[in-house]
Each structure stands twice: as structure tokens, then as C-alpha cells.
Predict the 3D structure of the following.
Amino acid sequence: MNKIRIGTRGSKLALKQAALVQEALRQAEGGIETEIVVLHTQGDKILDKPLAEIGDKGIFVSEFEQALLEERIDIAVHSAKDLPVKPAQGLDIVAVLPRGDVRDVLVIPKGGRHPELVEEYPVQSSFDLHDTVAEKQRGDGRTFVIGTGSRRRQKQAEQLWENVTCENIRGNVDTRLRKLRDGSGGTTYDAIILAKAGLDRLEIMSQYGDQFEFYPLPPEQFLPAACQGIIAVEAVQDSPAAEVCRKITDAMTELCFQVEREVLEQLAADCSEAAAAWCRQERGSLILDVMYAGDKAKQSSAETGTEKWDKQLRAGLEMARKAAELVKEKG
């Protein structure tokens, strides 16, 4: 095929992710022509409610799936963590790019208040939580307000820090940072939580380093959303565009994508629920951490990095089923 129409949302981050897919296609398919087509989703239009209250699964996805089925676009680019577990009939996820940083980041205005770590919480972090964070607020006693509409982030923030409350915040990255800095939007926040992959793609930490402090949170303890940091490409099954896009998929990222989505399917959960899953390969073994409603489980596989991809996938899917069952039993 000579031209691929790439459907995307219109935010800076969405356009950046579409550009990454565009570049990957150009490298894989030589002189193929691409066109960016911006669509506006229901999730972009309703900004005064938490995502969990808007309703439908795939709040950022359904308009793109309709456009694919109506042949108005050839592929759709998504943040994989926003996807429903199953695509619409006739569609498929045909590629995932190499995964970005999975971590969440606590963002605090320069000179602002810091949250106090729960006393018994085990500390393993890229920065010293006790010295850097807790000491700045010890004895303060005021509630620390974190801006996030994610139930997953809310649950883990309440487990990690003392005297924390989470308030909904919506909008793109720049909008959320402005609300944090200026208190605009009707709520005064002490901090917000954002995905590091998005911050990296937009180079936010270097642009705003003089205004905010950025604390990446250890993913072993503050588990990321399933498929966080992954850019996914959706297309009509067996279409020419699907065949082209399969050339740009990253095998290890695809394995983790499949395993983490299997966790969500087993839990009958979606991106609006307090669920997390993080699959990765460490020292030749496949590792999976899962959280649901605050309860956590860990699984590991004896498979080595030299095993064939399909064998690793089977092992990973079995781990997903076991981990999901464990957290359901705890709950």
C-alpha cells in the first residue's frame, strides 16, 4: 500500500506518539506515505468528571474503532493502557512499539509540601523517601492533596503516604501542571501523579525542571497500570495496513502487552479500576506483579530468555491467570 492514514487524538502527547509510529513505518517500509488524522473522543470532551464515572470501557477508543471500520483511517494509535481488553469485532492490535519507562512520577511544585511516608512502609526508591520527603512535613498534620482520577493511583497513594487524599484532575499534561502550579480549576493540589513515559516523550522534566520536582516512584511498590508506557497500533484484521504495521512491532513489548491484558481479562477489570499489572524479563526469567483493589501478587517463570517467543507467552499467560486468582482470593 502507498499511503497509511494514522488516526490519533489531538493532544501533544497523542501527536508525539503518532509521530513515533509514523517514523517507525517510514524506517520499516521505505518511502511509504503517511497522513495524520486527528479525531476527538468522548473522553476528550468530558473533562469535569473522573474517567471512572464517565462509563464505557475504552472511552478514548470507540471513535477510532468506528473510523477504522468505516475506512476513514487505516490505523489508530493508542496509549495501550487506555484500551479495552477486547478490540471491536473485525479489529486487532497489530503492533506495539518498544516500551517506555513504566514508572509513575510524583510531581511537586518547587518549594512545595511533601507527603509523609507511612511509617511501616518498606523503602526501596531511586530517591530517599524518608530524608527527602518525610522530614519536610513531619509534624505538619495537614492533609496532603494529590491530583489524580485513577483509582489505581489513589489506592496505592493511600497505602504509601500518611494523611493523603486524592482529588480528580483531568486535562493534558500541560493543563495538569498548570492546575498544580496555579491552583486553577477550583482545587488546590499539593502534587499530581503522571506517567513517566509521557513526560519523557514530551521532554517535560527538562522543560519544567525550574518549576517542579519530579520523583519517579519504584514500580515494585507503586505498580503501573497494565500496559503503561506502551504505544499500540490498531487496524482492521488482515488489512494491508495491518500487514505493514506488523513489521514495526517489538517482540518483548508484545509479550508483556499480552500478559498484562490477560490479567485484566481474568479480573474482568479495565483502566478505570484499581488494577495494576507489570510484566518484564529479569535475568532470563519472566516476572509479573499484579495488584487489584490494594491486594498484590507476584509470579515468576523459569523460562529463560533463550526460549521461543510462543513458549514464553504461554508461560506468561499462565502466570497472569495464577496471579489474578491470587489477588481475587485475597480480596
